[in-house]
Amino acid sequence: MVGVDFGTLSGRAVVVRVSDGAELGSAVHEYAHRVIEHELPGSGVRLGPDWALQSPQDWIDVLRNAVPQAIAAAGVRPEEIVGIGTDFTACTVLPTTADGTPLCFETPDEPHAWPKLWKHHAAQPHADRINELAARRGEGWLPRYGGKISSEWEFAKALQVLEEAPEVYARAERWIEAADWIIWQLTGVESRNICTVGYKGIFQDGAYPSEEYLAELDPGFAGFVGKLATGAVGEKVGGVTLAHLGGLAGRVTARASAWTGVPEGVAVAVGNVDAHVTAAAADAVRPGQMVAIMGTSTCHIMPSDQLAEVPGMCGVVRDGIVPGLWGYEAGQSAVGDIFAWFVDNHVPASYVEQAGEQGLHAYLTTLAEKQEVGEHGLVALDWFGGNRSVLVDHNLSGVIVGQTLATKPEDVYRALIESTAFGTRMIVETFERAGVPVEEFIVAGGLLKNPFLMQVYADVLRRPLSVIGSDQGPALGSAIHAAVAAGAYPGIEEAAAAMGKRTENAYVPDTARADAYDRLYAEYRRLHDFFADGRMLHTLRAIRNEASK
């Protein structure tokens, strides 16, 4: 099986043995355009604050480079490959023509023609209007999203396109998640997966928001659902089927075979989201198993056999992680991004010299872990990328309290790590207060490489951490879904049991440190509640935006 994970800065492919999930070979392809945040490539057209775009060409280049390289590294014959699955960041969404051509290929100097990456937060005013109107009308779908639709999701980003670039909106015959677009390129068949449609596309109980509601938002938005081109599960609308996870989306075309080296006719799994496929890779597809995929951001996903309204969650979707269960999602918009921001911008040259070959992150971690809990005298809010859960407000910003003339870089670095752990504890406690118990907390993603950070999370959460048994969780999860699509296993649960892996209780909380963190967490909660209304932080952001025009 081949699993392909399309991330924020790169795409990676892994070749996996069907019988036991052994990873035989892998390869990574770095995106040439990375994240487009300041100006469009080539034209130099400037972007506004809080924009984040990507290039579809980078995604195709992953198929052309990482996949054949992974097959070569695995030493397998192409004819041995029986399935391919993919996953994507979400909500990463793009406007296309009816045949799937990205509009940015036709008008590369128009910002709104490009795919909007998950971390594009410039649609926050549009999300605010979506939420205000839905609350006023008593829309039944709003509680399924914790009471607020995020600016990261499909409808807010599309409304921004309509109102800021109506000619682009008019030309867009499709508004499609990259997770589904890449499947279209592999198979030649347009499809939609229940995961992104549910979590990012406000599809609940077999329906999207009504035309009446959309028209009240903006008369030009009334027909927006037609660009999504899906109806109920299994029902074709305009030739497009809404499909269950682990299903067969189609088969590799001759063109895609030439790109990837995967034989024509091989099974292609229904598209999926990077976080959600990772549950299968960790064999965490049972009720109460929360998986935190920790990298540039953190996504918390968990299957459950019960439906509840969890304030500030990203969504709860029937069959959204595995068929037959409710799937919950929450998240933090920035985690690893916070640490990278601090290291890139706020560490003196003397530290760079002392860090040497080990690098600044490792050096700062070494210094930070020598401290006792609370020794730095700081507490921070993890809102440097806004707040995804539980406040759902991307116009919030980071806060650090307690700095003095004696504060050192390692103090701030440790406080930022702790802030992200506090944010996760807030999410876990919110779920449990809503009656959705978290029975096991499992970590996946790149931040697993930092044992100190993992121990901080165990101490702050006051619970053991299990860890995934793979460095390529999403890619492995995609391969597991491909195994189901190819018929090697009857369902995701069986495939995950055979091919997924995790180590239980890899990190255990220390009672003394956990008690000390309770005191700091209480101050985090006070700070959280004080700034939650956004009055000061929104004003500062508005002043910044006005000054930058």
From TrEMBL:
Domain named Carbohydrate kinase FGGY N-terminal: residues: 1-191
Top EC class, one word: transferase
Entry annotated with the keyword ATP-binding: yes
Transmembrane segments: none
InterPro entries, sorted: ATPase_NBD, Carb_kinase_FGGY, FGGY_C, FGGY_N, Ribulokinase
Residue stretches making up the Carbohydrate kinase FGGY C-terminal domain: 291-486
GO annotations of cellular component type: cytoplasm
Highest taxon of source: Bacteria
EC numbers on record: 2.7.1.16
Alphabetically ordered keywords of this record: Arabinose catabolism, ATP-binding, Carbohydrate metabolism, Kinase, Nucleotide-binding, Transferase
A biological process from GO: L-arabinose catabolic process to D-xylulose 5-phosphate
Record SUPFAM superfamilies: Actin-like ATPase domain (SSF53067)
NCBIfam families recorded: L-ribulokinase, PRK04123.1
Family: Belongs to the ribulokinase family.
Protein name: Ribulokinase
Organism per entry: Nonomuraea terrae
